[in-house]
Design brief:
By secondary structure, this protein is α+β, with helices and mostly antiparallel strands. The chain is built from 20 helices and eight strands.
């Protein structure tokens, strides 16, 4: 039966994956979507789903936006039915009335996406579809609910239980290595030689999460340097002429780049699981590893300093370290969460702010976003759960005494400057 099912699936893919040719006399995709949600037949449903997916890939941006807007409205919930079903459940709680409420409360759009996902290879196509939705619907609040539907489904389809952790090394398939180069979002990989320096030496590692439905597409990957002591410069870690060391001699694992690969999986969290899994696996493999830290950018620092009217210059390292520490500990956005997105990520994972380094990234990008300043976030595997819970409930930024001292010095200097600029009283 399995062999027969595979053969039928292959026949379906070949029969219906026809660019530009839609089911039922080229009817609008919105009508096909409406019909798919109401269809009962497995065969006809797969044919409809395949035609919708193939047809969508051939739409231009304007047509895609119309498709999103139409299904957002046409396949939405009916508030009156939801209220009636909830009232019925309140009057007479039972399995039947609860089922009726669940049916009424779920938008038909979610069933559309579930049925589309039955087509072989459709998961990746739906991820790309959400990327289009985020790109085209950014200024359209009516599409926010549609995006929430996809996020809800993706959170289930891409939960940790389905993800596969795979090492990426110089022997990995070329098409995977090409994607690592293309998806690197923190420190650009300039050439195949550059990639080789990050993957081949014994003291360098790379790991990625994959999904069984997208086996050739990394979802997120992390690059790791195995070092003696905590790294304080990205250029030193990536230097062409650096001397490689035996992995067994390392006492520290430095996570120096974490890149999300799929725009359509934005706000679907993988990084938390990735870092903890890699740290746990490395600790089991290399007993000498005692410290797990990042060497992270501070992408919002200069923007925040300019917004606050703070003067800054990258040729005053002590001042930049102090300002960076103050920013990481005290700059808050909505909901009293840290202003810096990388800080939110690592603190939310249970890390603490361990150390701040000036002149740590001399690249043009590093100078522009943080005046060259970088930060180590420390992952103490015995305390990450406790730190995560504390941050989630109080939003308190956990940091070492050294970082807190730096932050206090920045605040003190700011107060002195304010006093000096104040007009004297008569």
């Amino acid at each position: 039966m399995t062999l027969l099912a595979d053969l039928l699936s292959t026949v379906f893919e070949r029969r219906y994956r026809l660019p530009g040719r839609y089911f039922s006399n080229e009817r609008p995709l919105e009508d096909l979507a409406d019909e798919l949600v109401g269809s009962a037949g497995e065969t006809s449903g797969l044919a409809l789903a395949q035609d919708i997916l193939s047809g969508f890939e051939n739409l231009n941006d304007e047509e895609k936006l119309v498709f999103f807007q139409t299904i957002a409205g046409r396949l939405n919930i009916d508030p009156e039915k939801v209220r009636a079903a909830l009232n019925a459940y309140e009057r007479s709680p039972s399995k039947a009335t609860y089922r009726d409420f669940m049916t009424a409360a779920e938008p038909r759009r979610q069933e559309l996406f579930r049925r589309l996902n039955k087509v072989p290879g459709a998961t990746g196509t739906l991820v790309d579809m959400r990327a289009d939705l985020l790109r085209l619907g950014e200024q359209d609040p009516d599409l926010d609910a549609l995006d929430l539907d996809l996020r809800h489904l993706f959170a289930s389809w891409f939960n940790r239980g389905f993800l596969v952790l795979r090492p990426i090394n110089w022997e990995s398939p070329a098409h995977i290595l090409e994607k690592i180069i293309a998806y690197e979002a923190v420190h650009a990989i300039d050439s195949w030689d550059d990639l080789r320096r990050r993957l081949e030496p014994a003291d360098r590692r790379c790991f990625a999460f994959f999904h069984p439905s997208m086996p050739d597409e990394p979802l997120i990957f992390v690059e790791v340097a195995l070092t003696k002591g905590i790294a304080n410069s990205i250029q030193s870690l990536l230097a062409e002429d650096r001397e490689a060391h035996a992995a067994e001699d390392a006492d520290t694992a430095v996570f120096y780049s974490i890149s999300n690969c799929q725009a359509g999986l934005a706000n679907i969290s993988f990084g938390n699981s990735l870092i903890k899994q890699v740290a746990s696996d490395l600790a089991a493999e290399l007993g000498g590893l005692k410290t797990f830290v990042t060497l992270s950018p501070i992408p919002g620092l200069t923007r925040w300093l300019e917004r606050e009217g703070e003067e800054w210059t990258d040729d005053q390292p002590d001042q930049m370290k102090a300002k960076a520490a103050h920013y990481l500990l005290n700059a808050k956005s909505r909901g009293e969460r840290p202003f810096d997105p990388v800080a939110r990520f690592h603190l939310g994972n249970g890390a603490i702010v361990h150390a701040v380094h000036a002149g740590a990234d001399t690249s043009e990008k590093g100078q522009a976003q943080s005046g060259g300043t970088m930060v180590n976030y420390l992952y103490d595997l015995s305390k990450v759960a406790q730190n995560h819970e504390k941050f989630a409930t109080t939003q308190e930024v956990m940091a070492t005494d050294a970082v807190r001292s730096l932050a206090r010095s920045a605040a003190l200097n700011k107060n002195r400057k304010g006093d000096a600029n104040a007009k004297p009283t008569l």
